[in-house]
Amino acid sequence: MSLTGKQLPDLKTEIPGPNSRGCIDDLARSECPAITARRARRQEQTGVDQDPIVWRRALGANVEDVDGNVFVDLTGAFAVAGLGHSHPKVVEAVKQQSERLIHAMGDVYPGEPKIELCRRLAQITPKPLTHSILGLSGSSAVEAALKTAAIHTGKPGALAFWGGYHGLGYGALGVTAYREEFRRPFLAQTNPQVDHVPFPDTFRAPFGMDRGAKPADVRDAVLTHIRQKLEGPATAAESIGAIIVEPIQGRGGEVMAPQGFLEGLRRICDEFGLVLIFDEIYTGFGRTGSMFACEQAGVVPDILCLGKAMGGGFPLSVAIGREEVMASWGMSSGEAIHTSTFLGNPLGCAMGLAVIDALVEENWPQKVAQKGRDIRKRLEVFARRYPDRVGRVRGRGLMLGLELVEDPDSRAPDGALAFELVQHCRQKGYLVLPSGRWGQVLALSPPFMVTDEQWEGFFEALDQGFQSRPQEEL
Ligand SMILES: Cc1ncc(COP(=O)(O)O)c(C=O)c1O
Question: Is the CB of 254 under 6 A from ligand 1?
Answer without folding.
Answer: no
